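Q&A log
Question type: sequence-to-structure
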Amino acid sequence: MATLVDQMDQRVSKIEMQSEFTEMTQYATELQMYFGLREIEKTTFQVTKYIEDLESGDNFNEQNLEVKISSALRSKLKDVKSFGYIKINTTSSTLQIKTGRKDQAQHLVSKGPGIDHIIPSLSKSLIIPENMRSLDIYATLILPNGKFVILDSNKTLLMFSNEGIFIRQIVTFTEDSYRACFVRQNTVALTLGLANQIALVDIEKNAIIERIEFPHKCDGAASNGTTLVINEDGGKITTVNLNDKSHTILEVIGTDCISLFKGKIYCAVYLENKVYCYKITGEPLWTFQHQDIASPVGIALDMHGFVYIVSIRNISIVVVSPDGKTCKTILSEDDGITVPWAIDINRETRMMVVSNEISDASGATYQTAFVYKI
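Response status: OK
Response body:
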C-alpha cells in the first residue's frame, strides 16, 4: 500500500497543470492554445488509463487479517496441536472513480462570458431629493450590503438605501476630496487632493477614524481590503499596506483614475486616451488604446476581470477585455447616458452604478446615478 501511494504521489506531481493552463488561457495565441490543449488531452488520456488500470486490478481491495484463537488453549497445553489459523477476507473496492472521458471530454475548457455577452440592464436610479439637486458627483460606490455612497463636490459623503433613497449625510470635509473607494467592513477611503492625505471614514459611525499622509497629491484610490493604492493625476502611484501602513512608490507612466483587481493595478490616462495594466509591483503587463475610449475619467472591474471605462468625450461606457486586446461600447447616449463621470461595480452582486445627468418635469437638469445589472 505504501508503494502504491508513493507511486500515485509521483504521478500527481507530473499532472498538476492548473497554473500552466491558467497562464495559457490568459496569454497564449489561438494557435498556441490549440497545441497546448492537445498536450493536455494527451496527458489526461494517459492518466485516465492509469486510474482505470488501478481500479480494474486488486490495488484498492481491502485486505483484513482475522485471527481465530483455538479453544484448545483453554484445556491442557499438552493437548494443543495448533494455535489457530489466519483467514484473509477480501472486500471489493468501494472507490468511485469518475474520469469524465466518456461524456464529459467536451468540457475540458471552461470559459467565462465573452465581451459580446456583456449587456447591462437598467435596474433603478438614485432618487435625489429636490433640495439636493445641486449635487456634483465626484464618486459613487456600491457597498457590500447593497447601499450606495456618493461623494459630492461640496466635500460631503452621502448614503442612499438599497432602493436608491437618500438616508443621511455621513461626513463633511474641509479639504477638497476627489475620489473614494470601499476598503473593508464599514470603512471607506477618500482622497484629499492637495492636502496629500487619505481619510478613512467609518460610514456607520459617521466619523473619520484615520488620516494617512502621502508625499504627493492624492487624486484616485482603490483597495482590496489589505492594500490601498493611491495615485496622483499623471504622476505617481503609491501602495499602502493597511496593516502596518508601509508605503511603496511605483514608477509608472501616469494615471488619472485607478482600480485594483487580483493583484493587478488598472489605470486610465485622460490625455493619452489609454488604459494600462500593471502588476501590483509596478511592472507593465499591457496597454490598450482605441477610438471608443476618449478622455477616460472612471474605471472599474467586474468579477471576470473585464475593465469598464467611462469615456467622457464619447459620452459612453466602454468595456475592455481582460487581456487588453479588444473593447466594446456597452452604454451610450442612446441608452440615456448624458454626463457620466463616476463608476463602481459590486462584483458579488454583479451590479454597476454610473453617475449621470437627467432632467426633471420642468426641464431642469441635475445629477443622479443609474444602477445596472451586468
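Response note: The helical segments are 2-15, 18-27, 30-56.
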